[in-house]
Amino acid sequence: MGLLSILRKLKSTPDQEVRILLLGLDNAGKTTLLKQLASEDISHITPTQGFNIKSVQSQGFKLNVWDIGGQRKIRPYWRNYFENTDILIYVIDSADRKRFEETGQELAELLDEEKLSGVPVLIFANKQDLLTAAPASEIAEGLNLHTIRDRVWQIQSCSALSGEGVQDGMNWVCKNVSTKKK
Amino acid sequence: MAAMALRRLLLRYFPPGIILEYVEGVESKTKSIDLLDLRPDTDVTALVEEIQKREPLITASCLEHVVCLVQRLQEKLGEKQNHKFSLFKVLRTHILPLTNVAFNKSGSRFITGSYDRTCKLWDTASGEELHSLEGHRNVVYAIAFNNPYGDKIATGSFDKTCKLWSTETGKCYHTFRGHSAEIVCLSFNPQSTLLATGSMDTTAKLWDLEKGEEVATLNGHSAEIIALSFNTTGDRIITGSFDHTVGVWDVGTGRLLHTLIGHRGEISSAQFNWDCSLIVTGSMDKTCMLWSAVTGTHIATLAGHSREVLDVCFDYAGQRIATASADARVYNAGTKQCIAKLEGHEDEISKVCFNPKGNCILTASSDKTARLWDAATGHCLQILEGHTDEIFSCAFNYKGDTIITGSKDNSCRIWH
């Protein structure tokens, strides 16, 4: 990728390019989701200390997806990446009930960010392959998603591991990009 | 005209030259005699005669001394270098990926920029962190020492500001505000009186270091400026832009002198050669171009790469050019012929540089390795392995016996 490629992906993108920010707590499955989107091997994924960027073609768009590490000590740096974001994807580990409050808090703070104001948000209720996973409806309720009124939003249950539900989410992304970009 | 008197002669190893300190009237001045073509087997007597003819300050009384200096330069050039580099230290105090790295002139200190919004100053010999320069509100991307002095550090950030720091104390002297987008390149002028910054806002700015004020805005590009560089004398600056062109500006007036038009893709890199006669540019259009720095006319296109050219540089003497793409290449700046292909990296090469002596080339790649190459033959001399993610930046110290590499894996490595 190199620093120069990062600069190219940083500038305001032409109509056919979409900048997607992938956020969520550590171990939510962001990198697995990113690799699933890029059809890459997902068997050896380690915690992201910085960021990963991949470009994927979908429905006539070039989706530049930025996967940002979610560990607590590096969450204050999420802000480094807000500029020119077209779509926010927020990933939740649906089986990690102990941290629903924490993840809800982080999401609420993101939605308050000026640089992300009005940016459509897709919430992936990930890890539905686990038996203990909470259904998307329960998460939506727990996180009070229905109170989001300043932007379009969607919650989509998925398994980044199996790929189930991922494409449905990305369809929503492309649909909502097209209304914004065109 | 005031009388001129030579005070003393100094050596400059890279590029080879002799510096004359002299007094004119009451003023103390310096000038240099560049010996860019000097080789270990150059006829010293003939060369010194030539120098004497050209330079009135060199009188019969100091000829012996000049001969001695030239011989020292030749010895330096002739030194066999089979230094094997090995890992000395891994520095892990940045908590997010590194951006750029830079040495001071003597190589005693170096700096690293990071996504963690800091720039750190390190002691090269011990690997100890001397200062963490904190205050930016976003990624610290572009960094520089005011070489050859090295007493100041400049940092350019995605927070749209640039800061000037004291190397000694780590205190911030000035914060330069005015750009309306990320600052991604910067450079001190050789006199260390000005700082130039290039931004994604399509402008470059010149700042007065003493006053802490903006001196000029270089307005003319229609897209992001991602590279800039002063010439050796400091009276010209070039800006490379995503608008496919390079601007040549007069530093004194801030006026655009030439626009180098010809590339069919974004510019990735642009540099003057030592004697300020040539400009080399690299582009996403897979080519490099050579231009006359004086007239701004196109001289040659260095084609051959099959992918985007991500970096390009002259050697210290300005006689050869190294280019980075999927592979790296070395060209003769005079004949424009490709001298060597540096093949072996398994992913794109994002940075390339010569060692000061010019016999060795260092490349940094997305394949997580840095490699050393023989500049004449293109043979890979060494693979520096250990980083666990892409290497974004690399640098040689002036002596050429220490290398630093900065990586997306959040670490910086020192190699001896």
TrEMBL record, chain B:
The protein's name in its UniProt record: Dynein assembly factor with WD repeat domains 1
Keyword Cytoplasm carried by entry: yes
The family this protein is said to belong to: Belongs to the WD repeat WDR69 family.
Coiled-coil portions: none
Main localization (coarse): cytoplasm
Pfam families: WD40 (PF00400)
GO biological process: axonemal dynein complex assembly; determination of left/right symmetry; heart development
Function noted in UniProt: Required for axonemal dynein assembly and ciliary motility in ciliated organs, including Kupffer's vesicle, during embryogenesis. Facilitates the onset of robust cilia motility during development.
Domain of life per record: Eukaryota
One Gene Ontology cellular component annotation held by this UniProt entry: transferase complex
Swiss-Prot/TrEMBL keywords: Cell projection, Cilium, Cytoplasm, Cytoskeleton, Flagellum, Repeat, WD repeat
PROSITE patterns linked: WD_REPEATS_1, WD_REPEATS_2, WD_REPEATS_REGION
Start-end of each WD repeat: 91-132, 133-175, 176-217, 218-259, 260-301, 342-383, 384-416
SMART domains to which the protein is assigned, alphabetical: WD40
Signal peptide interval: none
Annotated compartments: Cytoplasm, Cytoskeleton, Flagellum axoneme; Cytoplasm, Cytoskeleton, Flagellum basal body
